[in-house]
Write a structure and sequence with these properties.
By secondary structure, this protein is an alpha+beta fold. It contains 16 helices and 19 strands. It has a domain of 146 residues: Phosphorylase Kinase, domain 1 (2-Layer Sandwich), CATH 3.30.200. 28% of the residues lie in helices and 13% in strands. Helix 6 runs antiparallel to helix 8 and helix 8 packs across helix 11. The longest helix is centred in the first third of the chain and has 20 residues.
């Protein structure tokens, strides 16, 4: 039929609506494990607080956190354009997805309640029968179900009816449709969408049914004492290869997942070590606006937290956090605030590059010398605190201590295999995003190259060839730049006590071509005995109590909290309060520049208390 003027077909709209009930292998059901109520508490200490009693310096930092100083955006969320500018031709393109609406044709009123409360088991939703609730989140609830005609198992994701959740659900349908378009046979380790529709005032997405997620699984094994036996080196190698292949595929079609974490990776077959990445509701396209409010905090990349521009390799950072969590038995960066997470990034991976501290939100977390600070942290005496690193907090030290007593990992800390694991994780957890490998480059690492899925072999081989050529070029002449190493945290003298100073080169190196500039080893130096006697730092999470000291002898007071079962940073012990000095708000760059010198001087002038 010829198109008439005004006919929408003249716009050449792409129809991305996928076919319903796509044929895909059915996952054999395994026991559904309960979702853990509380996360495991880390057994390692990374941070310590130092209270700043210098009032002008404290107020200068406090003003940075004041929401009234930025009335347009009190939450300080930073937005950037995508890494690539959208061509003008693409702006004119249109696509459509047809969402079926199922309703009773004899009534037109609203539901009795806005919430979807099915009668389980046996509630029928269009052509699916719900059997049990799998999980419930901020935006949706997920139910196990089966097709009423052919009995095919499925999962029905019921999106909450509020507008934000509804729009996020539509976005997930768009992304899953894009995945189906480019991977119709389901060869990637990504969840497959089978159906979607609107029913009883709720948007619903039907996907293949999978088994327990990694969080449920490793917590269950933790309770049984068999986590290390399952999540050993071969399992981590296969898991890394499958997830990197899935991420590389998503990145190749312009999608960044933005929510890689243990609850979003499900088991297909636990014995065969088959996994799939789920939940693309937070995914961002290349040309989307990139905000600083993406990813779960414990898995959020450093460049996102400081408000910098970011790209697809934020998923690689999150995957590195996940793999370290499986080795350690607890989240590596399990802290209740962005300040503490950033301080833990610095503690485990070295100092932030100066260019990252110039980003828009960095001043909310870092002093000019690169120290992380807090203002009135919860359950602590009011004040401004510097957050510092404890000894032995590097990623290499933490993983070595975790693996050393666990022969079930199949790793010997002295073996080359363990060196490859550390090298691989240190690459993924590189703070500088320009030195962090992409998913395709990480697939070429020796730790995962032998387990990479066939679909990823071409991309990983190309990345390996390109980086190997770059490595050869970098060593061809004496004038080339060597592999950079992140600064070490050294507390060796009063001049460096509150700042990061370059340390010695790492004692061991497992440099690979794909890692060229992503090494970020660091070690924490011990302070001289005389300095230790003055500092007397207490790590976060320890139990301690300090007595008051004369004001002229103590300009910095170190406070800590007692261990609690419901928080990683637990309630503080009853520390004696000090008389509040008269406060005059002081601003200016001069005071800010003096902050570190004042804090260092106060620590060195401190006399040990009798009760410590």
């Amino acid at each position: 039929m010829p198109a008439v003027e005004g006919d929408f077909r003249r716009l050449d709209i792409q129809d991305l609506t996928p076919p319903l009930d796509i044929s895909a292998p059915v996952t054999e059901a395994e026991a559904l494990l309960p979702m853990p109520i509380n996360m495991p508490s880390p057994t390692f200490q990374l941070l310590e607080r130092v209270k700043i009693l210098n009032v002008p310096a404290s107020e200068a930092l406090r003003l940075r956190k004041d929401p009234t100083s930025c009335p347009r955006d009190p939450d300080r969320i930073v937005y950037h354009n995508g890494p690539e500018e959208m061509p003008a031709a693409k702006r004119e393109e249109l696509a459509k997805i047809s969402v079926p609406i199922y309703f009773c044709p004899h009534v037109n009123g609203l539901e009795a309640t806005p919430n979807f409360r099915p009668s389980l088991p046996g509630e029928r939703v269009v052509r699916y029968e719900l059997s049990e609730l799998v999980g419930k989140g901020s935006f949706a609830s997920v139910y196990r179900a089966s097709h009423v005609e052919n009995g095919r198992p499925a999962c029905v994701k019921v999106i909450n009816p509020d507008k934000d959740s509804f729009e996020a659900g539509l976005g997930e349908i768009r992304i899953l449709s894009l995945v189906l378009k480019h991977d119709p046979e389901g060869r990637r380790a990504l969840v497959r969408m089978l159906d979607f529709f609107y029913y009883r005032e709720h948007l619903m997405i039907v996907t293949e049914r999978l088994n327990s997620n990694l969080l449920q699984h490793y917590m269950h094994l933790n309770a049984e004492g068999s986590r290390a036996a399952y999540y050993n080196a071969p399992t981590l190698r296969v898991l890394s290869a499958q997830m990197l292949d899935a991420l590389d595929f998503l990145h190749s079609i312009g999608v960044t997942h933005c929510d890689v974490k243990p609850p979003n990776i499900c088991i297909v077959n636990s014995e065969a070590r088959q996994f799939k990445l789920i939940d693309l509701g937070a995914a961002v396209l290349t040309h989307d606006v990139h905000s600083s409010y993406v990813q779960s905090r414990w898995y959020r990349a450093p460049e996102v937290m400081v408000g910098g521009a970011w790209g697809a390799n934020v998923d690689c950072w999150a995957l590195g956090c996940l793999l370290a969590e499986l080795l350690l038995g607890a989240p590596l960066y399990q802290f209740p605030s962005a300040e503490l997470v950033l301080a833990a990034h610095k503690a485990t991976r070295g100092a932030f590059p100066p260019k990252m501290l110039e980003h828009q939100a960095a001043s909310m977390f870092f002093t000019q010398s690169g120290c992380v600070y807090e203002v009135d942290p919860p359950r602590m005496p009011p004040g401004t605190y510097l957050v510092r690193t404890t000894a032995g907090a590097s990623l290499r030290a933490l993983l070595t201590d975790a693996v050393k007593p666990c022969v079930e990992f199949g790793l010997d800390v002295r073996s080359p295999d363990f060196g490859e694991v550390l090298d691989f994780l240190e690459g993924l957890l590189t703070i500088d995003p320009s030195h962090r490998p992409s998913a395709a480059e990480a697939l070429a690492h020796p730790f995962v190259a032998s387990s990479a899925p066939p679909a990823a072999s071409a991309a990983s081989a190309a990345a390996s060839t390109a980086t190997a050529a770059a490595a050869a070029a970098s060593t061809a002449s004496p004038g080339t730049v060597p592999i950079p190493v992140a600064p070490c945290t050294v507390l060796a003298s009063p001049d460096t006590i509150m700042s990061d100073a370059p340390g010695s080169a790492p004692s061991s190196s497992h440099a690979r071509a794909w890692l060229l500039a992503s090494k970020s080893l660091h070690s924490t130096g011990e302070s001289p005995e005389s300095e230790k006697a003055c500092m007397r730092h207490v790590p976060l999470g320890a139990t301690s109590l300090e007595s008051p000291e004369p004001e002229d002898a103590c300009m910095s007071r170190h406070v800590t909290k007692a261990v609690s079962t419901d928080s990683v940073i637990p309630p503080c012990m009853a520390a004696p309060s000090e008389p509040a000095p008269s406060v005059t708000k002081v601003t200016g760059a001069k005071l800010e520049r003096q902050l570190e010198a004042l804090s260092a001087l106060s620590v060195l002038s401190r006399r040990p208390s009798s009760s410590s």
